[in-house]
Amino acid sequence: MASLTKPYEAFERPGIVVSMKLATVKAFKGALMAVSTAGYLVPIAPQAAGLKFVGVANETVDNTDGNPGQRSVAITKAGSFVFKAVGFTPSQADIGKEAYAASDWEVQNSATGLGNAYKVGTIVALETTSTGELGVRVRIDNHTV
User: Fold this and answer.
1) Could you tell me which of 63, 52, 78 has the C-alpha nearest to residue 140?
2) pLDDT for position 13
């Protein structure tokens, strides 16, 4: 294989927000989303095997009456988001710990009790959710595919 000898246009596409095809499910804005083994987007769930975390839904899209891939969802793949803390009371000692999806909007600070442990980011701050519950700010960078 030869190295470049002149500039090459790699057609950069900033990957912070991408559009992904949705399975026959409803994706809610703010949900932790994953790609299934079939290649379609689904809300992340520790009960489901073989998922890969891809980011957070930017919009609500309902494809329950459609075909797989008929609708797409804008997904944010970087940044930080506030999710409800479950299975632990957030404390300053949790800063820097990995966050695991307990549902599509809840996280915990360990894999304990989860059927499938999906890491969705790193806890970077203690905050209250938009619904008024105890939460943590999770930085998802380097945890999405």
Assistant:
1) 78
2) 64
Is pLDDT of 9 > 90? Answer: no
Query: What is the C-alpha separation between 73 and 51, in angstroms, rounded?
Result: 17
Burial class (CB in 10 A: 0-12, 13-18, 19+), 103: middle
What predicted TM-score, i.e. pTM, was given to this entire model?
0.90
Rounded to whole angstroms, what are the CA distances from 66 to 34, 55, 58? 19, 22, 20
Domain residue ranges of the chain, discontinuous segments joined by +: 17-76, 80-139
22 within 8 A of 41, measured Cβ to Cβ: yes
Q: Which residues are CB-contacts of 1 (< 8 A; sequence separation ≥ 6)?
A: none
